[in-house]
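Suppose a colleague, Dr. K., hands you the sequence of a protein chain of 509 amino acids and asks what its three-dimensional shape might be. Before reaching for any lab equipment, you can write down a predicted structure in token form. Begin with the sequence itself:
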Amino acid sequence: MAVLSPTTIDLRGYAAAIGLELSETEIEELRGLIEPTMDLYRALDTFDDEILSPQYPRGPASVPPAEQNPHNGWSFRIRAEGAGSGLLGGRSVALKDNICFVGAPVLNGAAAALEYLPESDATVATRVLAHGATITGKAVCEYMCASGGSHTSASGPVRNPHDPAHMAGGSSSGCAVLVASGAVDMAIGTDQGGSIRVPASFCGIVGMKPTHGLVPYTGIIGIDPTLDHAGPMTRSVTDNALLLQALAGPDGLDPRQNAPRTGDYLSDIEVGVAGLRIGIVQEGFGLTISDPVVDESVRAAAAILGKLGAAVEDVSIPIHAAGALVWVPITAEGAIRTLFQTHGLSTLQRGFYPVDLLDHLARWRESANDWPVNVTAVALTALHMNEKYNGRYYARAQNLLRKVAAAYDEMLSVYDVLVMPTTPMTAPPLPPADADAATTVRLASEPLTNTGVFDATGHPALSVPCGFSGALPIGLMMIGRHYDEPTLYRAARALEKQLAPDMRPASRQ
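The predicted structure, expressed as tokens, is then:
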């Protein structure tokens, strides 16, 4: 596109926006001073822009018919076969629909009118193909990835395969459904507040939010760079570790990756828990929204780890209750800046900038009248706080985060793993289409109560199934030291072997 020089009217408006008073003479003088800079901008367009070209061929994308998409988990079907052999040879993988994959539109939970056709593949997509997997499609996600429930996608509610009248959890809702129902072996989700772990809990699968920066986020629509995580969703702990092994490590393009360390996530997975110290975080239980059956199931599962040789004790981290004070301002104000002010591209960082994605996100304002009420409420809250307080409370939340993270680090200097319910409840019923605004917002936010703070602190957190309440799964969350995913996998695998629940939905039994 051609770079246009600012007109007199443009400059007058820009000056007024920052409280700058200029005479007509001064405006004309500034136009002349600015023009050489415009020539530099125009010169940029003489260079080809960088894209991450696909390394593996793929077929055309299509929307599956309803009879082939019973839980509304698929956004698009597309098939790309990888290297043929390798760590993930023979495995099928779905990508959350905020992950760029050339040939398949990106909806990010929105209507087809806002679909984006990416020019580059996300690093995580290239990596699973390089390790021999086959990508078989894109999974539905919640609108702007802004809900812990599965009731906000423009394509309709995503239904829990254990009970289709109930939620699948969000925002990686389709990923969880496709994995739980057996439609794919594995999926790659994203998590800024619990969006991998909540649907994993509700659908009875394993979901890992890795240490912040361990998995590159390049080519994925984000919310706030300090919160953005991508990670594996699978039916078993071993498969989860296998997929993380393929995904982890720097790509040299993602500024979120601050000298990340990768590990061997499989070698010690069968070692067991003897000698580990496990702390049951009291503040994650007994909340006003907690289901006692969930609390009891998580405590019973932790007791099993004690019988296997771990030292299991109750611990108290009082500041856990203040997690929302940190996570909410960072998420709300960060999302507004990222999605609507910088159009998905955080400044002041080196890395790969997908310019086509920037152009696409600049269009999101056009759809404001179609936003679900939970997105509208977050947007207006953040705009108000930015307008009235100039980012003061985003800054205060980031500063308080240092104290919150230090409290977890201190406890993790004594304990190897911390445990609490992933979600305080099992999957709630899906609301009716005409649900009131308060219900829509409540169902989007309540599932994130225990999970959100660990996106802010960056600690690895793993949801693993630990039982059922009726037909609905219960998830136990394990939190570990930064980059100590191997210990979480050890503990989760030990629990998985003992419980050995058949976590498959009735439709697959």
